[in-house]
Structure prediction request, 492 residues.
Amino acid sequence: MKMFFKTITLAMITTLLHIPAHAAASNIYIAASSAGAADGSSCANSRATSFFNTAGNWGGGGSQIGAGTTVHLCGTISTSTVGATILTFHGSGTSGNPITLKWEAGAVVQAVAGGALINGNSNSYLVFDGNSTSPSITETANGSGLAYQLDGAAIDVSSCTGCELENLTITNIFAHLQNADTGGRGNGNCIYANNGSGLLIHNNSIDQCYVGINLVTTGITPTQDQIYSNTIDHINWGVYFNNGGSTTIPGPLVHDNTIVNMNNWDDNVNDSYHHDGLFVVNNGTGYIQNTMLYNNSFTGTMSNCVNSCATAWIFFNTGITNLSIFNNVLLNGGGPMVEGCIAAGRAPQALDSGINITNNTFITTYGLYNITGCNGLAIENNIYGGSIGGSALYISQITGTYAMDYNVYQNFSSGEPHSLNVSSLMLDGSYHPSAGSPVIGKGTNLTSLGIGQLDLDKAGVIRSTAWDVGAYQYSTGAVAPLPPTNLSATVH
Prediction:
C-alpha cells in the first residue's frame, strides 16, 4: 500500500480556519515607565508609555496595538511639561472591533496645564473607558489663581468616527473661581471633537472646565451623536454643539444628563462668559435638524451676578429645525430657563421651525423664556413653579404655527385657554406629582408628534391617554423599560 503525504502550511491552516495569519495583541498594559519583564502582560510587567506613543508599535502584529486591542493604563501617568500631550493614538480600530484605552484601578492621566492630554490623532473606532477611576484625567495647576490659565483638552477625538467615551472622571482642566479671570474666555475643554461623527459620550463625571463636551462640525455631515447619563459640574458651557459649516447636519441626542452649577464662571465686572447648560448653535451658514434634548436635570446655581451672567440652562439660536425639548427638570434662578431662535447675525429662516418645548418641569424665581423670531413654536404640557411674573415669559415675533397651552402655572394667570393657575402644584421632593395634584390628566396627548421617547416620562413611565403636565407622569405602578435608541455594539 502506498501512502501519500501532503505538506500542510500555516497559510493553508489559516485559510481553512478563516483567521488572519497575524493579529494584533489582545491586551497590552502600559505605565509611566516599564516594570518587571516589560512585556505588557500585566501592570506588574508593563510597557512604558513610549511604547504607546511610537507609531511603529501600531498595526496587525502579535505584539502591536491594532483593531481589537485593549490598552490598559496602570498607575499615575503624568508629565511636568506644560502643554504636552501624554498619549497619542497612531491607528484606528474597526466597527465592532475598536481599540480600547482602559483605566485600571487607581490609574490617572495627570498634567500640569494645557495641551490635549490624550489625542485621538484623527483615528476612528476608539473606546475610552475610565473604569470609574477618580480622577481619570486631571490637571494640577490650571485655573484661577493658579500658575497657568491655558486652553487645552483632557481628550481630543477630532475627526473620529464611532468613538465612545465612557466611565471617565475628568476634573480641573480649568478650575475657575467666581469673578476671577475677567478678561476673556475659552480656557479648557474636558472633551473636544472637531468633525467627529457618531460619537457616544456617556456615564462620565465632568467637573471644572470651560466646556464640558465641545462638539464642532465644519464641512462634514456626521452621523448623529449621543450624549447621555453624564454629570457635568462647574462649567461655563455644559454641552456645546456647533455647526460651523454650510451643510444641514443632525443635531445630537442629549438625554439623561445632570448639569450642575455654572456660577463659578460668573464675571460681575465684564460679563465675559455667558453660561449655557446645553448650547446648540449655528456659527456657519448651514442648519441643524432633529436635535432632541430630553430627560435631563438642571440644578445647582446658574448665576449669582446682579443682572445674570447666564444665558440659559438651554440655549439655541437660528437655523434650527425639528428641535424637541422635553421631560427635563430645570431648577433655580439666575437666568432664563430656555432661550432660543435668537438670530446670530442673520434673520430667522424658513427652517427655524418645529420647535417643541413640552412636558418639562420648571421651578424658578427668575425668567422662564427668552424666545424671539422662531418660525413655528409649540410650548405645551409644562409645569411652572416658583415665583414668576409676566416678564418671565418673553416670547415675540413668532411666525408660522404657534401653540402655547395646556401648561400649569403656580400663582400666575397666563390667559391660555386650557392652562391652569394654581396655588400649589402638589409635587413631591423629586418633582413627581403627588396624589391629587392639579397637573394630573391636564395635559394634551402629544403622541401625534411621533417622538417615541416623549410617550414615556422622565422615569420611563408610559403616559396614559390623558397626559399629565410636566416631566413626570403620576403613577403608583411599575416603570416600563426605556426603548433603545441609536444602538451601537462595541467589543471591549
